Amino acid sequence: MIKVVHAGIYNTIQDVGRIGLAKNGVPQGGSMDAYSAEMANTLLKNSSTSAVIEITFGQGKFEFTLGAFICLMGGDFSPRINSVSIQMNTVVEVKKNDVLSFGRRNYGARIYLAIQGGIQSEVVLKSRSFLLGITQPKLLKGDALKINSKKPYSGEGFSKLKIYGNHFSDSNLECSPGPEFDRLNEQQKQRLSEPFTISEDNNRVGYRLNQPVENDLKPILTSAVLPGTVQLTPSGKLIVLMRDCQVTGGYPRVLQLSEYAISRLSQKVTGEQVKFILSK
Amino acid sequence: MLFELTYKPFGASVILIEWPAKIEEEIIQDIIAFEKKIEKDQNILDTIIAYNSLTIRYRILKNFNRTVLRLKELYATERKQEIQQQKVWQIPVCYDLKFGLDLKEISEKKSISMDEVIQLHTEPSYLIYFLGFQPGFLYLGGLNEQIYMPRRSNPRLRVEKGAVGIGGEQTGVYPQDSAGGWNIIGKSPIDFFDVTKSQPSFAKAGDRVKFQPIDLEVFKKFKDEVSKGTYELKFHWV
User: Fold this and answer.
1) What is the 8-class DSSP label of residue B147?
2) How far apart are CA B171 and CA B149, in angstroms?
3) Which of B62, B81, B100 is the last residue before a domain boundary?
4) Are residues B65 and B112 in the same domain?
5) ipTM for the whole complex
6) SS3 (DSSP) at B65
7) Do residue B46 and residue A20 have CB atoms under 8 angstroms apart?
8) Lesser CB count within 10 Å: N end or C end of chain A?
9) Structural domain of residue A160, as residue ranges?
10) What is the pLDDT of residues B70-116, one digit of tens each?
């Protein structure tokens, strides 16, 4: 088991989310920084759909009731076992009764705790991802998460990943035109290519950006939205939809982030700058 | 009948197909029929249906133009006959003032009795256009314009699961507790979303819904049956 000693602010179990249920109005969900979560699973030789713990801002404390191989990737919040610092982006062995906690933030917003074999929590509608209305919304103090007993691990070849520093430092977000991009005039398009900053209204559902874009577009008939869809709201503020967004929306969809750009944005925090880079 | 469709890329592996921007039964039926034609495609991960669009998420989308060409061919093929028959779900709703928090206000604003509001609400058989907003939330069409009612300027922080509301020209049922700005006129004891079922919503786009008024006593009885898992939802075909 992994016992939740401190709940933190918003920690959840995540995998690749729910696929094939959009017709029922079910959001996809899944790890915000899917890239880092997948890397952690890869290092542990897990399947890419293994469940991990998404830890927001390194807040939280976890105790292992049995020995395990783990891997921490994503934002760097100075992880330590008991009081000893441990490395990120590599496989680490923990022992029975070890306690994982965090310290100073170095970069990023979310750190992923992956474990050999994946977290064995309950599967609800084909996924272990937490989602309000479908599962418990977040991990609570006292939760005990089932894990498999440790198997021999040999990490020959790729036990340590080269630091993927750009993932955190680069403010560029690769994107393509959204379905309503063509309704924008040249001035609006120009504005979209200039920098924006992230407002404090940012979470698993979406990131609202600070600077308004002059907006004279009419709302659209409610239509599909996706994680990574950039909506232009009536106030002119942009919302970048993230993993837990609804399946439909009524604001013009001006840009669509690449899958990787969603992961990159999910590691950015209030006040940070982003720039949309339109490919094509 | 065939509509003039547009095909747009929506990110790297998604195609958005758009019908004329109108809320019409004929359009949604055409979208549903098109979706039926592609549902067996193993390369498709997910589809999203809305008023005038079908969005297809592919596992891998190698060649947008070629895939669109294939979709166009498929669209031109004949529609299956089975869609002519529609399921009408009978949804029990208790309009008691205990649940109908805004019934009185609607009745006063519209100068019609509360009974009339209820009658106007239970008369139509509403078309389910699609599901969205929340898991299990049905976008229904067919509300009588006499009971159109603008959303509340101060949304409630908590609307109970099962609450039946009117928001502008729309009516619907909140499938779970949530914040909400619709005018609440009643409550349904049934579950619109059940995570233990592989098909978590009983209703799908293209079906219909008819509200059946029940009193407080029946509400309690049905609620009890729903929690025991013995409640049997009724429907008929038209």
Assistant:
1) G
2) 10
3) B81
4) no
5) 0.94
6) helix
7) yes
8) C
9) 2-166
10) 999 999 998 765 556 899 999 999 999 999 999 999 999 999 999 99
